[in-house]
């Protein structure tokens, strides 16, 4: 990748102008450290030996003390970047070998969803939803589950060399009837996997074929018949064969994962897939049903780690949306994630869950970041962890990095409206409101009824003072989510700010009545009161912090600008561990 106009973290490197800037301000950098930076950032992720760096900076016939000269230049470069040798964000030292640029480097002029040109050594494939050939349409959970697990398996196989499109995008391509030519041109996909599933008693027959997009030829196909409990072994078998067909380099230890290679109780596996099917709906009811099914799968096979990871994710989502109290969700999510990691230390989903508990409940930012980075190390094709990591970076006001992680999630799953909308949400939190609106509108085109995308839009319109559009988006989010408190509270805020005080108070009354029968987050009550009474909002914020309600970590958002000026507000960010509000 040429180093002209490259963004990484808060920095922008202008190779033509021989200048490094941070958040628009020039950063002083001497010639040798600048030369090293240009060499490293041009090949992100690649280990560059010390000798190669020295030869390219000083020439092959130099007579310098190579080790001392490079060490000095790297130290100056790290100082300019604010990097840490023990926990590097940009430059990693490989002892005795050389250096690697580990941050994501994006062209400064790109805001496109598709960026395959930045990954010339990475094969990109999509797994289309496997067709359910069983007579019973209710068994679609089985074909859906096989699809999901194969995506996860391939994603974790060799992330540096093999990219896998997110399930939402693959499903949307299939639903739209996009041609292979369109998929290749618009998304950069090189191979498509198709298949079918037919279940009979405890056996399952699976047909799989691999199609090359460029010439639409089938380059591999195979049929399998397995017991349901053997499918975890089968998934790695198929992943190995596909990697070989697309000529992908696979790390030697990729197939040693105990959780993916052992047989499991057939009923436990089937129950887990049913839970996964409901979790993928991402609704409060779906998550509650998934929790019951994951717990049943664990009872059937306590040594099977995936139901524990699914259980953690389901509890976390209920906590994020304020459906259950933090004490009823995050400790349970933590316990489930820890158990999953005891069985399989390389399970990316469990590391991501641990990161979200550390972020949303413990307010331990360093531990959260470490867990997210572990998850990405084991499966960088996991879109959700990039999105959760982006949220942490926004909380810490590391906005350029947050936007980069949100864009990475969108790159993996570009046709997912919530994932695409999160780019706009990250820009909103960075107070780049025009760009935020543009990205949120683009996400809206993918799914105009998405509750979370409409919520993102409502916040952006509110900040711009466009109360009519903000109200419309918040109404849509509320309606499509069946009056979820998180979205209803935002509607109340917008109505109050728009001068519709009676309507805003009616929303508050609805939330208060609901709280008599079920849990309503005090953070949502705080949001609703922001439209009519900042003093009452502060009272509810106190309750939210005391309960460790997940979204109190978002106090740096523009949404709280008015409340931020009130006496007494400043203590809340300090209690949460935020020094930037």
Report on the structure:
The protein is of the alpha+beta class and 581 residues long. A hairpin with a 4-residue loop joins β13 (203-212) and β14. 55% of the residues lie in helices and 12% in strands. It is globular, with a radius of gyration of 25 Å. Strands 9, 10, 11, 12, 13 and 14 form a six-stranded mixed beta sheet that branches. Strands 4-3-2-1-8 form a five-stranded antiparallel beta sheet. The chain has helices at residues 31-41, 50-58, 66-81, 140-157, 167-176, 180-187, 231-245, 258-261, 266-279, 284-300, 306-320, 330-343, 348-362, 365-378, 383-395, 399-412, 417-429, 433-446, 451-463, 467-480, 485-497, 501-515, 522-529, 534-547, 561-564, 571-576; strands at residues 6-8, 11-14, 19-22, 25-27, 47-49, 91-94, 98-101, 106-107, 123-127, 131-132, 162-164, 191-200, 203-212, 217-227. The longest helix has 18 residues, at 140-157. 49% of the residues are buried. Among the domains are: 6-107, Orthogonal Bundle (Arc Repressor Mutant, subunit A); 116-258, TolB, N-terminal domain (Rossmann fold), CATH 3.40.50; 485-581, no CATH class.
The structural class is alpha+beta
Helix content: 55-70%
Largest sheet: 6 strands, mixed
Distance between the termini: 37 Å
Query: Remind me, CATH topology of the domain at 116-258?
Result: Rossmann fold
Strand content: 5-15%
CATH class category of the domain at 116-258? Alpha Beta
Shape: globular
Instruction: Assign the CATH superfamily of the domain at 116-258.
Output: TolB, N-terminal domain
Q: How many strand elements?
A: 14
Number of helices: 26
List segments where confidence is low: pLDDT < 50 over at least 5 consecutive residues: 109-118, 255-260
The residue-averaged pLDDT reads 87
> How much is the radius of gyration in Å?
25 Å
CATH architecture of the domain at 116-258: 3-Layer(aba) Sandwich
């Amino acid at each position: 990748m040429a180093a002209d106009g490259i963004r990484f973290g808060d920095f922008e490197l202008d190779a033509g102008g021989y200048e490094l800037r941070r958040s628009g301000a020039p950063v002083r950098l001497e010639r040798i450290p600048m030369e090293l930076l240009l060499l490293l950032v041009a090949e992100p992720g690649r280990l560059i030996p010390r000798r190669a760096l020295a030869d390219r900076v000083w020439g092959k016939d130099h007579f310098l003390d190579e080790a001392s000269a490079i060490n000095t230049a790297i130290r100056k470069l790290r100082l300019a970047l604010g990097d840490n040798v023990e926990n590097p964000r940009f430059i990693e030292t490989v002892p005795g070998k050389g250096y690697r640029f580990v941050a994501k480097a994006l062209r400064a002029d790109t805001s496109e969803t598709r960026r395959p040109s930045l990954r010339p050594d990475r094969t990109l494939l999509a797994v289309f939803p496997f067709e359910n050939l069983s007579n019973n349409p209710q068994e679609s959970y089985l074909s859906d589950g096989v699809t999901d697990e194969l995506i996860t398996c391939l994603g974790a196989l060799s992330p540096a060399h093999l990219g896998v499109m997110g399930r939402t995008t693959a499903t949307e391509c299939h639903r739209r009837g996009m041609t292979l030519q369109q998929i290749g041109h618009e998304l950069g996909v090189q191979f498509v996997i198709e298949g079918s599933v037919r279940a009979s008693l405890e056996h399952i027959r699976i047909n799989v074929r691999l199609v090359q997009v460029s010439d639409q030829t089938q380059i591999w196909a195979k049929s399998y018949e397995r017991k349901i409990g053997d499918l975890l072994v089968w998934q790695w078998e198929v992943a190995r064969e596909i990697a070989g067909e697309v000529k992908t380099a696979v790390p030697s230890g990729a197939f040693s994962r105990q959780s993916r290679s052992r047989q499991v109780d057939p009923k436990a596996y089937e129950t887990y897939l049913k839970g996964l099917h409901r979790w993928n709906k991402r609704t409060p009811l779906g998550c509650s049903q998934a929790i019951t099914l994951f717990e049943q799968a664990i009872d059937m096979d306590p040594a099977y780690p995936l139901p524990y990871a699914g259980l953690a994710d389901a509890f976390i989502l209920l906590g994020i949306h304020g459906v259950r109290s933090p004490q009823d969700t995050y400790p349970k999510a933590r316990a489930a994630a820890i158990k999953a990691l005891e069985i399989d230390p390389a399970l990316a989903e469990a590391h991501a869950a641990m990161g979200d508990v550390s972020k949303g409940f413990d307010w331990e930012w360093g531990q959260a970041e470490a867990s997210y980075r572990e998850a990405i190390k084991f499966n960088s094709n996991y879109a959700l962890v990039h999105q959760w990591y982006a949220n942490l970076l926004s909380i810490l006001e590391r906005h350029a990095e947050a936007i980069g992680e949100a864009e990475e999630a969108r790159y993996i799953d570009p046709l997912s409206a919530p994932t695409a909308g999160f780019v706009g949400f990250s820009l909103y939190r960075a107070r780049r409101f025009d760009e935020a609106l543009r990205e949120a509108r683009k996400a809206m085109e993918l799914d105009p009824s998405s509750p979370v995308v409409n919520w993102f839009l409502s916040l952006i319109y509110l900040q711009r003072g466009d109360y009519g559009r903000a109200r419309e988006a918040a109404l849509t989010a509320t309606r499509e989510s069946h009056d979820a408190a998180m979205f209803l509270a935002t509607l109340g805020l917008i109505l109050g700010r728009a001068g519709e005080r009676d309507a805003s108070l009616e929303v508050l009354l609805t939330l208060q009545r609901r709280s008599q029968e079920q849990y309503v987050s005090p953070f949502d009550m705080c949001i609703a009161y922001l439209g009519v009474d900042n003093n009452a909002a502060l009272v509810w914020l106190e309750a939210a912090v005391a309960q460790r309600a997940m979204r109190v970590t978002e106090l740096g958002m523009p949404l709280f600008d008015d409340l931020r000026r009130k006496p007494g507000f400043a203590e809340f960010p300090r209690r949460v561990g935020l020094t930037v509000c």
